[in-house]
Amino acid sequence: RPAGDRPVLALEHFMSALAPEGRRDMAWEIGDKGFNIVLSTYVPDVIAANVERIVSDLLTPCGLETSNVQLWAVHPGGRAILDKVEQSLGLAPWQIQPSRDVLRDCGNMSSVTILFVLERMLAAAQAPATVAAMAFGPGLVIECAMLDLIPATNPVESASPEPELAELAV
Q1: How far apart, in whole angstroms, are the C-alpha atoms of residue 15 and residue 37?
Q2: CA 116, chain centre distance (Å)
């Protein structure tokens, strides 16, 4: 699993889980003008009630416990979701900071937002880390992955930065 000149994420394990009591709290409905999202204020509580069980199901096949995971890529569906996951799992604020940064900078872009969180983790990668990732979707489904973050082994340093667009126009 060489990283070469760029950091990489290696997939170790993947699973899907369901929090059926949240079925009506997060859903897509087909309306006259396309899809309408149903998103209740109970979603963070449903996630909090299920996250320990789901994380245990994710980590056990890998022989890991919560304390073995350095970074948590949590779908930033809202501040309350991040707060509930952090509290439920006893995480340090820095462990989910990339999720908070993406929420602040980009907002909630549906479940694909997790990819932006992972991108931030890759950009900051300086040491190997174990990463647990989770995204939430309609039904209330939780997609989870265990990843190994492998920093670049031979980082490429540019001799000169890319020219600015204004410089190219002259």
Answers
A1: 24
A2: 8
Report how far residue 131's alpha carbon sits from residue 121's, in angstroms, rounded to the nearest whole number.
9
What contacts 25, CB < 8 A, 6 or more positions away?
38, 39, 40, 42, 43, 46, 140
Q: Token digits for 140?
A: 């209330």
d(CA 10, CA 113): 19
pTM of the model: 0.84
For residue 110, the Cα-to-chain-centroid distance in whole angstroms is 11
Q: Which two tokens stand for residue 35?
A: 């899809």
Instruction: Please write down the HEC assignment for all residues of the chain.
Output: CCCCCCCEEEEEEEEEEECHHHCCCEEEEEECCEEEEEECCCHHHHHHHHHHHHHHHHHHHHCCCHHHCCEEEECCCCHHHHHHHHHHHCCCHHHHHHHHHHHHHHCCCCCCHHHHHHHHHHHHCCCCEEEEEEEEECCCEEEEEEEEEECCCCCCCCCCCCCCHHHHCC
Q: Tell me the C-alpha distance between 131 and 72, whole Å.
A: 6
Condensed to tens digits (0 to 9), the pLDDT of residues 103-137 reads 999 999 887 899 999 999 999 999 999 999 999 98
Order of all β-strands in the sheet with 8-18 = 8-18, 141-150, 129-137, 71-74
